Structure formats: structure tokens, C-alpha cells
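Quick one, probably user error.
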């Protein structure tokens, strides 16, 4: 799979059916962040969810599960994180 194919496939995922199925990444990651925050007892932000999901994909690749889907998903999570971070005031991205 070429770079452009990975990016095009990621674009289809994050801008297509998944958004219809799960809602916008911002609202879906906010829901996840709220649940993870309660579960862990620490504040987790939507951008953190995107980055931690990206790390999940990195771990899968590192563990030998380097299928094309992992790279596509990794690119998609990075794109979502970038968009969420750009739309969030800088002082709201830093917790602590």
C-alpha cells in the first residue's frame, strides 16, 4: 500500500461511514474521554483519546500485527487528533 493509498483510505474512514455510524470524532472521543476519566480518576481529553488510540495501533504493529488496516487507522487517528487540537484552545489542551 502506498502513502497516498493509506491516506486516501484513512480519509474515507474518518470522513465517511464511521462518522455516520458513531458521530463526529469530536463528540465520540469526548464521550470516550469522559468514561476513561471516570474509570482512571484522571482527566482525559478528546485529543488524548485520539493519541492513545494511535498508540494502540502502534502497539499492534509492534506486536507483529502490521496489517494495512493498522496503518490506515493510525493515519485516521492522527488526522482526528490534529483537527481536535486545532479546534481546542491551547490552554484547554494542557491538564494539570
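Nope, works fine. Designed sequence:
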Amino acid at each position: 500500500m502506498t502513502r497516498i493509498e493509506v491516506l486516501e483510505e484513512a480519509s474515507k474512514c474518518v470522513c465517511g461511514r464511521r462518522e455516520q455510524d458513531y458521530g463526529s470524532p469530536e463528540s465520540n472521543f469526548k464521550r470516550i474521554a469522559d468514561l476513561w476519566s471516570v474509570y482512571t480518576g484522571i482527566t482525559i481529553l478528546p485529543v488524548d483519546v485520539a493519541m492513545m488510540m494511535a498508540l494502540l495501533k502502534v502497539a499492534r504493529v509492534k506486536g507483529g500485527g502490521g496489517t494495512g488496516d493498522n496503518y490506515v487507522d493510525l493515519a485516521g487517528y492522527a488526522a482526528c487528533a490534529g483537527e481536535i487540537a486545532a479546534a481546542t484552545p491551547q490552554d484547554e489542551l494542557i491538564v494539570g
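Residues 10 and 36 are 25 Å apart (CA to CA).
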